[in-house]
Design goal:
Length: 220
């Protein structure tokens, strides 16, 4: 009887120890799950906003995108496959309105578009030191151009609705002013008209012609 009582007591102790270990393992699993959740949340927050109280020294990406509260893309900054670096700002309808480009060859440009997305003003600077400002109408036809060439000669041109140049003003490389005024027929009004040559008058011949002597009558 004593042996059975001792065995029963020992079994009860083992069962109590097992239940205690089971509760401890459950608590450890719950704590581990909580720590794992906190780690995931910290990684998510730090990837979006950075670690609290810290500022990232370097953020590398091929493209950045800015969205509004409605989910519409309002800005794009990135690189293209041809090496162009571009910054585009878009309106609430997703149409590009302001664009800055830096091409692979070093050319740079700034473009402004209207509410329909049509380019209306373009400022460009080329590798050959040529700069130009181009203004277009609603049909995207060039109507005015202000530019400066590589040798420093400035010009300003005005075009009609068909895109044909009608007026121009500039300074050439020698410092002389230039003016162009073209009418509808294509004639340059700034050029002086040349007067047609007048036919020369034929002077009268003042030389006298000697009369032939009279013929003598034949004898019989």
């Amino acid at each position: 009887m004593r042996l059975e009582g001792a065995l029963s007591h020992r079994i009860d102790e083992v069962e109590r120890e097992y239940r205690r270990l089971k509760r401890l393992n459950l608590s450890l699993m719950i704590g581990l799950a909580i720590l794992l959740g906190l780690g995931v949340a910290l990684v998510s927050v730090s990837s979006r906003y950075g670690l609290p109280g810290t500022v990232a020294e370097l953020v590398a990406a091929k493209q950045f995108m800015v969205r509004g509260d409605d989910g519409v893309v309002r800005g794009i900054w990135g690189t293209a496959d041809d090496g162009t670096v571009r910054l585009m700002l878009q309106d609430s309808a997703g149409r590009g309105r302001v664009k800055i480009d830096l091409l692979a060859d070093g050319s740079s440009g700034l473009t402004f578009a209207d509410s329909a997305g049509r380019a209306r003003a373009v400022f460009a600077f080329l590798p050959d030191q040529t700069a130009s400002l181009v203004l277009a109408d609603a049909a995207q036809r060039t109507r005015a151009v202000l530019g400066i060439s590589a040798d420093g000669s400035p010009t300003i041109l005005f075009a009609d609705r068909s895109g044909s140049t009608r007026a121009g003003l500039g300074v050439d490389s020698r410092g002389g002013g230039t003016l162009t005024l073209v009418d509808r027929s294509g004639r340059n009004l700034a050029e002086p008209e040349t007067e047609p040559e007048q036919p020369s008058e034929v002077e009268p011949d003042t030389t006298t012609t000697k009369a032939a002597p009279p013929a003598r009558p034949r004898g019989r």
